[in-house]
Design goal:
Helix content: 25-40%
Oligomer: single chain
Shape: elongated
Mean pLDDT: 90
Distance between the termini: 46 Å
Number of helices: 18
Number of strands: 21
Radius of gyration: 29 Å
CATH architecture of one domain: Alpha-Beta Complex
Structural class: alpha/beta
Amino acid sequence: MGKMETNKNSIFEKNIQRGKENGIISFNEDETRIIYHCSRDYSTSFTNPEEKVRAAYFVELVLDYQYPKERIDFEVTVPRRTPEDRADIVVYEDSELKKPYLVVECKRDGISDAEFKQAIEQVFGNANSLRAKYAIVVAGTTRTAFDVAGFKPSEREKNVISDIPKRYGKAPKYRFIKGDPVNDIKTVSKDELIRALQKSHDTVWQGGKLAPTTAFDEVSKLLFCKLKDEKDTPKGKPYKFQIGTHETAEEVFKRINEIYQKAKQQDAEVFKEDIRLEPKIVYSVVEHLQGITFTKTDLDTKGVAFETFMTDFFKGKMGQFFTPREIIRFMVKILNPTKDDLVLDPAAGSGGFLLNSMDHVREYAEAHYDEREAWEHWHGFAQHNLYGIEINDQIARVCKMNMIIHDDGHTNVVSTDALQDFDKIQAIHKGFKKEHFDIVLTNPPFGAVVRATEKDYLDKYDLGAKLKERKSQKTEILFIERAIDFVKPGTGKIGIVLPDGILTNSSLQYVRDYIMERCQILAVISLPQFAFSHYGAGVKASLVFLRRKDDDEELGNYPIFMAIAEHIGYDATGKKDPQNDLDRILEEYRKFQENPKEYKGV
């Protein structure tokens, strides 16, 4: 690792910085070695991630828990243990360092539950041999403290305490108090957040006991409880989403489940079923997440963290529900939604188009208004103007969760078939009206077929069986007609991902005719073959942008903006590509918009 990678949002970096400022730790010139100024000057290599965790916790012990640095020692040999066993940090009750008080075991962030349990056994062995009163395992952002003296050596759960005492006092009942300057939950960096989500998922997944998607569902429920608790806990009160001193897994589960049941009543659409995990597992997830704040972490950090966690996780299994971020951003910028626009994605997947529309409006607001006004500007938009339909119930929940993590807008996401009759969709949510939306942004499912024998609506579509007898039709073709029906005549705009076949196959001329009859084609951007390949879809596609014509509008000949993107910010394997033609294409499109007839192209 050499010189420490600096990430100013990292909890560890912040603590190490405080330690340097207070003179309790220092470094050699290239920061490959650290010196702890404790009961002696202890110097060691600073190149492994575990040392970063130990350094940060030492600083907390001295500055936050008020233990005198002169009574702290490192790498203490443990009697009656295997010769190489040493305790990472020991805090003593006396200046002669004769009476061990607290033994600390440090591990890097992101270790598995099994490794964490092993670390607990290790710290217990060390604390018992040294006859210390307290012990704690600090594995990055996950930590668990124990009252060793008060219990039999074999006890583990009952002697868990919420936190170690401050300056030889009593262990607090709860560690995390809302609004407390020292004991409030903390914001973390993107990587720390991804690791916390990853750890939670691994805990729930239990090495394959649950299907990965079921595990994700359960993590979503607990995350939902966590967010709810952060918002609902009054200032000065302990959070409910934490482990208190001497609490059993059952007690913790009961408290978390109460939050969930209450939330379920308020929003039955998102979570229809109960938490299906045993208390032990919920307890472990609470350990991973209790010290972190989601609500105060800035949107970009948590957005990217959740997205990374989610896509890594679903990509192989459910790639069809994800549109690459670079393409989404580009499409949103082309159509440029404002806070007054009603935006719909009828094939919402995990919510990429809706969230990026929200971000687009938020970025505008933050650049043009003061903080309070900006917040109201984009929150109103998120809550009232974003609509999504997703046929897969599980993915609809992911979409809602994604929106909740981004500060909301999940109330207008429903799980149903966007192609069925309008009145059936409106029976679920009356906001999904015909000719009602300003913008439709969507990447409809490709290649699936709607058969007249399976669905009762094929004959309601002009492109289905209404004008010409057809036994079946491709979903993406029906989605074109549905998108046009959803937007306002005259002004409504559509951005849609379509397979190139629709634009080129001679047998699909009737689809192109239908589009030109009802819409003005604004732009067509051809994407490279690999654009969707690392999501498991290898179809060559283009981005098509339309404006719905007024019912009696005649256009005659008009210019259409065309472009070919060869580089799109990532390559065929999904790795970042520093080149991205989409930025340049957007600039050119803006020039084209100013004066379409005079635009010369590049």
